[in-house]
C-alpha cells in the first residue's frame, strides 16, 4: 500500500429506518485512480456524499491525510482538499471559463483588473493540465467534454488533493473519453488522487489502479485492476454470474413481415436514409456521437419534422407529423434523456404510467382513479418495477426502475414498435440484464424494437441486424452473424469524401 490519503471505516448511514450504508469502508492512496462500482442502490453515492460533506455518517470514522474529520458541509470538505464532480455539471453557461473557475473567489480590484487577473490564473491552471481552452470563452459554447474539463479545473483551483468523479464519461464520445483519460493521467502524475465512479466496466480496466466493489450498502472487496477480470467484477457487484455473449444468429424468419419502413428520409441532419424493421426484430443503430442516430429516431417518431421521405406501417404509408400521430400508429419512443423527456420525475409511478393513457381511465369526462391504480399495479407487476407502491415518487427510484416505468406506460398504450434510445445509459450491470430480459420478452410477444446504443457489447448481444450511421448517412448494414466491433467501427468512421450533395433536391 502507498501513502493513504483517505480512509473510511465502518461507515453507517440510514434514511428513515432504511440502511443505505452498513459498515462500509474505503482506502484511497496518493496519486491513484480508485474505481468505485456497484449496482444502483449499492451505496456508492451515499459514501461519497459523506466524504464530500453533503451527508454526515451515523457512525464510523473518516480519516483524511492522517487526521479524523467530521465535515458538516461541502465547503468544509472542499477547504480540506476534497472535491466532488457530479454527473450533472455545476457551471453557469453565460459566464466565461475563468468566471466559472473562480466564481465567488474573484480577484480584488476594479472590474477590468479582476477579470484580467482571473483570466491569467485560469490560463495558468489550464496550461498545467495541458488543456488549451481560452479562459474568456463562454462556457455554454463549449462541448460537454470541454465543460467537464472546466469543472475539473475548478476543483483543482481549490488545491484539491482528492477528486471524486461521478460517471464522468456518460455523455462523452470515444475521442472525448480519451482526452479525459489523458487529463486524469496528468493529474495522477501531480500526486492527485481520484475516485472514479462508473457503470462502464470496460473503462475501469483502462484508467484505474484498483477497484472497490459495493453491494447493498456493504463493502465487498477491493481488487488490483491488473489482476481482475470483467466476470469477477460483475459477480462481486451482483452476487451472481451474468454472461455477456454476442448473439450468434438472428431468430427472425426471413419471411417475417415488415412492420415499419422508412423511404428516403431527409432532414437537416439526415441524408437520404432508407431502412425497414421486421416483426419480432431488434434493429440496432450504431455510430459515433453526432452520427444522426437520435435525429433519425426523432424523425420516425414525429418529434422533429423531416424535409421529405415516407414512413410505412405494415406496407401502408402513414402521415406522422407529430408524436401523437406516431403513438396512434403504435410507435413509442424511450428517450436517452428519460428524466428530461420520458418521465415526470416529481410525480408518482402511478401518474407516470397513466399520463399517456388517460383516455383508458376516463368515462364521461370523469377520471376513474381506481382503474388507474389497478392498471399501474399491473404494469409494476408485469415489468418488475421495484417500488414500495405505485404512489412512490419516480425520482426516488433507481435508474433501472425509472426505465421500467417508461416501458410500463408504453406497454399500457399497446405499442407495437419500441424505439429504445440508449436504453441502459446510467444503469448498473444487474439492472441492464433486467432491461435486456424485458426487451426479449417484448420480442417474444411479437413487438419490434429499434435500439440506439453507444455500447458495442450491447449492440452485439441484443441486435438481429445492425445499421451503422456516419454524419447523417447510412454507411453499413450488418447481420448479427457477420457483425463485429471492428466492422461496426469501420462503417462508423466512413465519412463522405465525395462532397456534399444538396438536400434540397427532389
Give a quick precis of the structure:
By secondary structure, the protein is α/β, with parallel strands linked by helices. It has helices spanning 44-51, 74-79, 97-101, 111-128, 144-156, 174-189, 201-207, 230-238, 293-300, 323-328, 338-342, 349-354, 369-383, 399-412, 429-444, 456-462, 485-492, and strands at residues 4-15, 18-29, 33-37, 59-64, 67-68, 82-85, 162-166, 193-197, 210-215, 218-224, 258-266, 273-278, 282-286, 308-313, 316-318, 331-334, 362-363, 366-367, 417-421, 448-452, 465-470, 473-479. It is globular, with a radius of gyration of 25 Å.
What can you tell me about this protein's structure?
- By secondary structure, this protein is α/β, with parallel strands linked by helices.
- It folds into three domains: 4-238, Rossmann fold (3-Layer(aba) Sandwich); 257-330 and 417-440 and 448-495, 3-Layer(aba) Sandwich (Rossmann fold); 336-415, no CATH class.
- Helix content is 33%, strand content 25%.
- The chain has 17 helices and 22 strands.
- It has helices spanning 44-51, 74-79, 97-101, 111-128, 144-156, 174-189, 201-207, 230-238, 293-300, 323-328, 338-342, 349-354, 369-383, 399-412, 429-444, 456-462, 485-492; strands at 4-15, 18-29, 33-37, 59-64, 67-68, 82-85, 162-166, 193-197, 210-215, 218-224, 258-266, 273-278, 282-286, 308-313, 316-318, 331-334, 362-363, 366-367, 417-421, 448-452, 465-470, 473-479.
- The strands form five sheets. A six-stranded mixed beta sheet has the order 6-7-8-3-9-10, with helices on both faces. Strands 16-19-20-13-21-22 form a six-stranded mixed beta sheet, sandwiched between helices. The chain has a four-stranded antiparallel beta sheet with strand order 2-1-4-5, with helices on one face.
- A hairpin with a 2-residue loop joins β1 and β2 (18-29).
- α13 crosses α14 (399-412) and α14 (399-412) packs parallel to α15 (429-444).
- The longest helix has 18 residues, at 111-128.
- The radius of gyration is 25 Å and the shape is globular.
- The N and C termini lie far apart (68 Å).
- 43% of the residues are buried.
- Mean pLDDT is 87; it is low at 499-506.
Amino acid at each position: 500500500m502507498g501513502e493513504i490519503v483517505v480512509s473510511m471505516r465502518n461507515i453507517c448511514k440510514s434514511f428513515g429506518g432504511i440502511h443505505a450504508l452498513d459498515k462500509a469502508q474505503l482506502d484511497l492512496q496518493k496519486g491513484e485512480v480508485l474505481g468505485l462500482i456497484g449496482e444502483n442502490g449499492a451505496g456508492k453515492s451515499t459514501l461519497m456524499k459523506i466524504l464530500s460533506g453533503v451527508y454526515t455518517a451515523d457512525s464510523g470514522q473518516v480519516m483524511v491525510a492522517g487526521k479524523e474529520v467530521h465535515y458538516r458541509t461541502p465547503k468544509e470538505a472542499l477547504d480540506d482538499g476534497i472535491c466532488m464532480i457530479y454527473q450533472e455539471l455545476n457551471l453557469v453557461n453565460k459566464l466565461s471559463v475563468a468566471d466559472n473557475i473562480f466564481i465567488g473567489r474573484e480577484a480584488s480590484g476594479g472590474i477590468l483588473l479582476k477579470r484580467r487577473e482571473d483570466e491569467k490564473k485560469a490560463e495558468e491552471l489550464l496550461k498545467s493540465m495541458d488543456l488549451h481552452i481560452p479562459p474568456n470563452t463562454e462556457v455554454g459554447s463549449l462541448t460537454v467534454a470541454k465543460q467537464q474539463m472546466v469543472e475539473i479545473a475548478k476543483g483543482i483551483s481549490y488545491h484539491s488533493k482528492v477528486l471524486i468523479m461521478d460517471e464522468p464519461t456518460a455523455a462523452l464520445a470515444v475521442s472525448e473519453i480519451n482526452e479525459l483519460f489523458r487529463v486524469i493521467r496528468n493529474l495522477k502524475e501531480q500526486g492527485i488522487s481520484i475516485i472514479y465512479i462508473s457503470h462502464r466496466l470496460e473503462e475501469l480496466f483502462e484508467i484505474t489502479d484498483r477497484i472497490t466493489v459495493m453491494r447493498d450498502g456493504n463493502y465487498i472487496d477491493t481488487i488490483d485492476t491488473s489482476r481482475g477480470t470483467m466476470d469477477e467484477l460483475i459477480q462481486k457487484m451482483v452476487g451472481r454470474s451474468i454472461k455477456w455473449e454476442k448473439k450468434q444468429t438472428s431468430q427472425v424468419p426471413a419471411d417475417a413481415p415488415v412492420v415499419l419502413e422508412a423511404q428516403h428520409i431527409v432532414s437537416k441532419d439526415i441524408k437520404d436514409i432508407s431502412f425497414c424493421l421486421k416483426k419480432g426484430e431488434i434493429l440496432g443503430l450504431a455510430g459515433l456521437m453526432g452520427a444522426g442516430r437520435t435525429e433519425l429516431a426523432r424523425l420516425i417518431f414525429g418529434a422533429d419534422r423531416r424535409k421529405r421521405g415516407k414512413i410505412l406501417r405494415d406496407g401502408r404509408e402513414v402521415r406522422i407529423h407529430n408524436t401523437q400521430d406516431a403513438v396512434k400508429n403504435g410507435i413509442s419512443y424511450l428517450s436517452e434523456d428519460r428524466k428530461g423527456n420520458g418521465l415526470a420525475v416529481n410525480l408518482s409511478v402511478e401518474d407516470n404510467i397513466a399520463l399517456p393513457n388517460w383516455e383508458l381511465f376516463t368515462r364521461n369526462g370523469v377520471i376513474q382513479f381506481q382503474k388507474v391504480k389497478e392498471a399501474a399495479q399491473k404494469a409494476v407487476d408485469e415489468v418488475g418495477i421495484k417500488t414500495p407502491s405505485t404512489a412512490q415518487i419516480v425520482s426516488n427510484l433507481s435508474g433501472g426502475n425509472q426505465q421500467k416505468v417508461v416501458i410500463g406506460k408504453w406497454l399500457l398504450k399497446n405499442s407495437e414498435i419500441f424505439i429504445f434510445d440508449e436504453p441502459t445509459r446510467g444503469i448498473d450491470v444487474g439492472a441492464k440484464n433486467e432491461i435486456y430480459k424485458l426487451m426479449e420478452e417484448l420480442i417474444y410477444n411479437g413487438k419490434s424494437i429499434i435500439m440506439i446504443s453507444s455500447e458495442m457489447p450491447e449492440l452485439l448481444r441484443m441486435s438481429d441486424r445492425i445499421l451503422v450511421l456516419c454524419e447523417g448517412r447510412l454507411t453499413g448494414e450488418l447481420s448479427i452473424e457477420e457483425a463485429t466491433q471492428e466492422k461496426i467501427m469501420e462503417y462508423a468512421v466512413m465519412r463522405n469524401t465525395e462532397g456534399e450533395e444538396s438536400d434540397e433536391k427532389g
